[in-house]
Write a structure and sequence with these properties.
Length: 260
């Protein structure tokens, strides 16, 4: 594996290339309501300038263009967003927050265009099951929710007739996690049972815990799906943490639990 760690603002993104064995590409017909869907939301200070920059770079559009969420949607009113894809067809989002919404640091005056990562969004089958996993077992708190539908949402994710229940959760620090539950349509597919970490649909969210072995024991007691056979001790300085274990949430999204 070749791993490259990148930083934007206070957040980090790790790119992992499996030199051997190579994994499978993302399915050509992958959509935002499939349960393997995940993206990161990159905050921008000016959506028009960000869109112009991305368009000049000839990125692959998912959205038809930037969408402003309507005023009737109290939880998300005035937020602007645009979906596109990276060279491996991973979905990314650029997002801008109006005054009074989002983390206050996104409202600070700056001459930078791309500011940081606000959250990662995952498609889920049942919000309540995801809340049990992330809140009851991992300690996240609910930070907000909204009910999204209509023309803007359809043009944002190219799922026509989309009606989403969106729930935001946060830990003590770091980017949040956003659940995307599609109330309609109901044709989203589950994660492939044979999906592996070297397949390009694989995303993993890294969570830091003070005692990874105790947390792993707790999760085993709750019959959580483990990818790792056990907690792995990492040689000093190799990956930036001392111990880690990879597990899956109720929909198969990968979570890397680490102890620094």
């Amino acid at each position: 594996m070749r791993i490259v760690r990148m930083q934007l603002g206070s957040e980090f993104l790790e790119l992992t290339e499996y030199l051997t064995p190579r994994g499978r590409p993302i399915p050509e017909d992958s959509r935002s309501d499939d349960l393997w869907f995940q993206h990161i939301a990159i905050v921008v200070s000016d959506m028009d300038n960000a869109f112009d920059k991305l368009r000049a770079l000839k990125v692959q559009f998912v959205s038809t263009g930037p969408q402003r969420l309507p005023d009737w949607n109290i939880g998300a009113a005035g937020i602007k967003a645009f979906y596109f894809q990276d060279p491996d067809r991973h979905n990314l989002e650029v997002i801008s927050f109006p005054p009074g919404k989002g983390d206050p640091r996104w409202q600070e005056k700056t001459n930078k265009l791309f500011l940081g990562i606000d959250h990662t969004a995952i498609t889920v089958a049942q919000t309540d099951a995801s809340l049990h996993f992330y809140s009851d077992l991992l300690g996240f708190r609910k930070a907000g929710e909204s009910d999204n539908y209509g023309t803007e949402q359809e043009h944002l994710n190219q799922i026509f007739g989309a009606h989403l229940r969106i729930t935001a959760i946060r830990a003590m620090s770091g980017p949040g996690i956003e659940f995307l539950e599609y109330l309609t349509p109901h044709d989203g597919r589950p994660r492939q049972h044979d999906a592996k970490a070297n397949d390009l649909i694989h995303w993993q969210t890294t969570l830091v815990t003070p005692d990874v072995e105790a947390l792993a024991s707790k999760l085993r007691g709750e019959h959580v799906d483990f990818v790792s056979s056990d907690v792995t001790v990492v040689p000093k300085g190799k990956l930036g943490f001392s111990k880690g274990v990879l597990v899956r949430d109720p929909d198969g999204h990968a979570i890397l639990l680490i102890q620094e």
